[in-house]
Prior knowledge:
heterodimer, A: mainly beta, about 0% helix, B: 7-stranded mixed β-sheet, 4-stranded antiparallel β-sheet, globular
Amino acid sequence: QTVVTQEPSLTVSPGGTVTLTCASSTGAVTSGYYPNWFQQKPGQAPRPLIYRTTVKHSWTPARFSGSLLGGKAALTLSGVQPQDEADYYCLLYFGGAWVFGGGTKLTVL
Amino acid sequence: QLQLQESGPGLVEPSETLSLTCTVSGGSISGDDFYWGWIRQPPGKGLEWIGTIYSSGNTFYKPSLKSRVSISLDPSKNQFSLKLSSVTAADTAVYYCARHSLSDMDVWGRGTTVTVS
């Protein structure tokens, strides 16, 4: 069974920069896994942020960016704001199946 | 603007079949080159992809759920549906429907809570 792993929790100060990562148990994550990133706040549906590794949706704030980093997919938040406190999930495509990461709880403190 | 809305019973008895429907508005489920998926989230836990149906009718299921899951399209009603059989308390979750491509899961419903008890 394929497992996608994210940091369980991260803490960042307002105005700071933080990088969340997304790793696959099958090996290095490449663009062919079409990494997606979602933000979820309590009681809300997930909100898509990034797709195809780096592409932002029209509603995604400029401070969010996606990349590949050291064999993982990565989501970087630059100039973090208090409203960025949320759970973040990555999603990878494995040829006929999609697998979510376990999620990262981001605390802005 | 495309919108998705989940509907179905909020309470299902153990060993029974969970049935949910996703109604799509603002676009056609059969005319475009998209996938239509179901995702769930148990209380306090992460997201889990359950399965997906392509606009042509081809289906894709999470391997560990494959024996219990069925997803179908109803183009006449612009809906797609999820059936999950032999449910247990572990199937209690918020269930979301979503539109996606291979590379982008861009439109989600608000979710519906299903309790198995």
